[in-house]
Amino acid sequence: MKQGQSLWTREELILAINLYCKMPFGKMHKTNAAIIELAELIGRTPSSVALKLGNFASFDPTLKARGIKGASNASKLDKAIWDEFYNNWDEALLQSEVMLAQKQHSTIEKINDIDLEQFPKDGKEKERLIKNRVNQSLFRKIVLATYNNKCCITGLEQPELLIASHIVPWSRNESIRLSPMNGLCLNALHDKAFDSGLIAIRPDDYTIVLSDKLKQKKLISPVLESNFIAYEKQTIILPDKFFPEPEYLDYHYQHIFQK
């Protein structure tokens, strides 16, 4: 550590990894507006925040698989925070979002643009509904950032048409609801097809598989051809971090996909 520098606190690291999750890897540089904003919030320089994100990148198995090492000066506390998130995304991410809201003198509802008027006035049901909405908002931010705001099948970049799709459905496994590896960025049409089991992603090579229901000769049309048949056996556009977990893709293939 250079003279005049102070050690990063646990709170600062949690806020940094929160940002790491919400940002495409290729945009983690000191001139990025989000990095500058966090730096001002925690009293650090943009350069130091960008370097810290690089430290977290050094632990990311997806980046390692691509031969990207990240920064080489990560601390034991950096690794501990990474492991804390990587092994418990749902709890850790939500807590980090609460911490971020507090630091901004706001609430998790406000920083996720959630209108409280649409919920009951009080009670446990309100708390449950708000938590679910916050989780959905947070998951969307992370998944779209992970895929650089592009549909992983078509490359579509129109935000209004993009969905953060769960590989293992939201209702079937609460422990991985917020895991970035349980998400795909899909356009609305292919999200519906994926949820309905009409398409799947092979867990071994990330190629697109179509259900026989889409390939019945009497149903083939130019629209079906251009939107589905054309993509069969193609590899999805893989994210620059947080590859979809093969175990989750296999679950979808075995239990939801209509072979």
Fill in the keyword field for this structure.
259 residues; mainly alpha; 2 domains; two-stranded antiparallel sheet; two-stranded antiparallel ribbon; 4 strands; 45% helix
Report on this structure.
- The structure is a single chain.
- The chain has 259 residues and is mostly helical.
- It has two domains: 10-87, no CATH class; 137-255, no CATH class.
- The protein has eleven helices and four strands.
- The protein has helices spanning 10-22, 33-42, 46-57, 61-65, 76-86, 89-103, 108-111, 124-146, 188-195, 222-227, 246-255; strands at 162-166, 183-187, 199-201, 208-210.
- It has a two-stranded antiparallel sheet with strand order 1-2. Strands 3-4 form a two-stranded antiparallel ribbon.
- The longest helix has 23 residues, at 124-146.
- It is globular and about 70 Å long.
Q: Can you give me a brief rundown of this structure?
A:
This protein is mainly α and 259 residues long. It has helices at 10-22, 33-42, 46-57, 61-65, 76-86, 89-103, 108-111, 124-146, 188-195, 222-227, 246-255, and strands at 162-166, 183-187, 199-201, 208-210.
Strand order of the largest sheet: 1-2
Structural class: mainly alpha
Helix content: 40-55%
Please report the total strand number as a whole number. Answer: 4
Tell me about the largest β-sheet. 2 strands, antiparallel
Number of helices: 11
Compute the gyration radius: what is it?
20 Å
What are the low-pLDDT stretches, counting only 5+ consecutive residues below 50?
Answer: none
SSE run: HHHHHHHHEEHEEHH
- Domain unit count: 2
Strand content: 5-15%
Q: Please state the overall shape, judged from the principal axes of the Cα atoms.
A: globular
Question: What distance separates the N and C termini?
Answer: 57 Å
Overall mean pLDDT: 89
